[in-house]
């Protein structure tokens, strides 16, 4: 079959003006341009073509014209790096939950409705919820189950995230206006939570997130701590005593060193604590140092092996640094009877 050539447009008369596009046409063209730019930006970021351009625009990662917003690029890089670690955890836990659900159905018990609903992730100190939204769009939306709950104590940010989730039709996202420390007992949160995240949650909010994860028997915790002032305050208080006792107190003689050492000691002790409580811990970098000063990523996976040696090292370290009181206040250690050597 031969097709007729398309009729060519009538030649424009010399001097004739091009008719200006109608507003609707202009709108459509602008939308098409933004979409094409957005698709190019997704490819540049290594995101799948199905990722929501509208969501990235609402999070100000893409401009209205679909171009990459250079200021937000750094945030997106951090979040995408975290997603690489969290995505396999979500799939592992989802498989585990589906198997549990099938087993309980087979043994004629009523099927576990919470297992069918997929993994539950709670993001503490959620801020604008970049992490929650990107995780939902890239992982939980295609999975078709699972829930993200953002905990954030600034009500305006919570309202903003709720509105965005509604606009995007992300029905399995919730945002709760509360302090991390109050979330553990709050009835709006489920009894069991699979994954706990805290990305740059300020000061002791990371410690509250760890306590939350332990209480909810989380399978995994993914933590990027921010600065922590509590340990530095204890180091400062005991400085004169420690300088007389050990030359290692020189490590925190100067105020700047006290602050930096305080943050470092806190993270080391958090890791030992998680190991003592039955988690396997990995410590790595979030992104290159040029992108964030607070760059330590702690990934803890439940192994059920409460390590006695970790508890003993934690207690010895606290004693050396004069932090016994802080340790007692902050970390509830497991009873020795539950431990493995
Ligand atoms: C540095 S921002 C990080 C936000 C987000 N996680 C991110 O990385 O984009 C820290 C957020 O945690 C919130 N926050 C700090 N301490 C908190 C607490 N104890 N309880 C609830 N929210 C807290 C702050 O209001 C802020 O929005």
Write down the overall mean pLDDT: 88
What's the domain count? 3
CATH architecture of the largest domain: 3-Layer(aba) Sandwich
Number of strands: 7
Assign a percent range to the helix content.
40-55%
- Elements, N to C (H/E): HHHHEHEHEHEHEHHHEEHH
Poorly predicted parts = 1-9
Q: Quick gist of this model?
A:
The chain is an alpha/beta fold and 341 residues long. The protein has helices at 23-45, 53-58, 70-106, 113-116, 130-143, 155-168, 180-183, 205-215, 230-237, 239-245, 255-276, 308-321, 324-330; strands spanning 120-124, 147-152, 173-177, 195-199, 220-224, 279-285, 296-302. It has a seven-stranded mixed β-sheet, sandwiched between helices.
Task: Summarize the structure in words.
The protein is built from 13 helices and seven strands. With 341 residues, it is α/β, with parallel strands linked by helices. It has a seven-stranded mixed beta sheet, with helices on both faces. Helix 9 packs across helix 11 and helix 11 (255-276) runs antiparallel to helix 12 (308-321). The protein is globular. The chain starts with 22 loop residues before the first helix and ends in an 11-residue tail after the last helix. Mean pLDDT is 88; it is low at 1-9. The structure holds S-adenosylmethionine. S-adenosylmethionine (SAM) is lined by residues 125-128, 130, 151-154, 157, 179-180, 199-202, 205, 208. S-adenosylmethionine (SAM) binds at residues 125-128, 130, 151-154, 157, 179-180, 199-202, 205, 208.
């Amino acid at each position: 079959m031969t097709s007729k050539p398309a009729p060519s447009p009538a030649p424009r008369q010399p001097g004739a003006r091009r008719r200006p596009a109608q507003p609707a046409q202009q709108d459509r063209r602008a939308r098409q341009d933004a979409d094409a730019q957005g698709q190019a930006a997704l490819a540049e970021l290594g995101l799948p073509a199905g990722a929501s351009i509208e969501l990235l625009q609402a999070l100000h990662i893409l401009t209205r014209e679909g171009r990459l917003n250079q200021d937000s690029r750094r945030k997106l890089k951090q979040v995408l790096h975290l997603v690489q670690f969290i995505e396999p955890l979500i799939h592992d836990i989802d498989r585990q939950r589906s198997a549990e659900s099938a087993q309980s159905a087979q043994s004629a018990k009523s099927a576990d409705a919470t297992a069918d609903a997929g993994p539950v992730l709670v993001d503490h100190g959620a801020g604008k919820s970049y992490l929650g939204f990107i995780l939902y769009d890239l992982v939980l939306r295609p999975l078709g189950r699972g829930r993200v709950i953002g905990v954030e104590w600034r009500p305006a940010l919570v309202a903003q995230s709720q509105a965005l989730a509604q606009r995007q039709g992300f029905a399995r996202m919730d945002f709760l206006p509360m302090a991390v420390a109050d979330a553990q007992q709050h009835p709006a949160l489920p009894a069991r939570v699979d994954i706990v995240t805290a990305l740059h949650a300020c000061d002791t909010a990371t410690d509250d997130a760890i306590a939350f994860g332990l209480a909810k028997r989380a399978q995994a915790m993914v933590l990027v701590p921010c600065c922590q002032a509590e340990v530095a305050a204890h180091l400062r208080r005991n400085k004169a005593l420690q300088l007389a006792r050990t030359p290692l107190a020189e490590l925190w003689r100067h105020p700047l060193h006290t602050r930096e050492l305080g943050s470092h000691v806190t993270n080391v002790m958090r890791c030992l604590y998680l190991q003592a409580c039955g988690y396997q811990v990995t410590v790595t970098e979030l992104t290159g140092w040029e992108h964030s000063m607070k760059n330590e990523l702690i990934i803890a996976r439940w192994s059920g092996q409460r390590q006695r040696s970790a508890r003993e090292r934690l207690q010895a370290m606290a004693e050396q640094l004069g932090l016994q009181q802080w340790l007692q206040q902050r970390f509830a250690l497991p009873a020795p009877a539950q431990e493995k050597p």
